[in-house]
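chain below, 206 aa
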Amino acid sequence: MSLAVFTTSPTALSWDQGNSHFPASPSWTSRWGGTIVDDINQHSLTAQATDVTTLFNLHYARLVRSLTVICGNSEEAADAVQEAFVKAHLKWRKISMYDDPVGWIRRVAINKVRDGHRSRVRRDRAVERLGHEVRLTSEQPPLDEVAELLATLPKQQRAAAAMFYVEQLSVIEIAEALEVSEGAVKFHLHQARQKLRAHIESREEM
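prediction:
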């Protein structure tokens, strides 16, 4: 779902985010919570919208094409670029002072795409790894079901299993995080697997 929707024409740009609307024209106004603000810093606001509009019209399509190559999904790329432009608008007083505002927008969009990719990879790997370890026979559960399963474990086992399955940490890293020995981590993981397996088998018998 897009956080913002931009519409363009040869002469105008506008976008919506939440309950704010910014038409690109010398007389544009901003409304927050239904109240039209058209008599405060009107000239500076107009200049701000025009600058962001210019950047959008010049660079939006190229940025989307570039990010599509990176993430392999044109819709995801468009969403990321649109969100980056919204952030640029909100911080334009600062961003406009940068040597390369478009470079900032590009980095924000790329980070958005990468964050989404990393989240999906972590989720998929966690589900696959946990499903394999406890020998799940049903379809791989979504991450919220993984969290539900881990929540049935005692505190130390839950912490070790979450770091191992969800964060993909090593036994050494988990030991350092929990300030316990590696042997203790292995024991907690072993106990967690047994309890998870028993829990899943009991659910399947119901």
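Confidence is low (pLDDT under 50) at residues 1-49, 135-141. The domain at 134-205 is CATH 1.10.10.10 (Arc Repressor Mutant, subunit A).
thats it, cya
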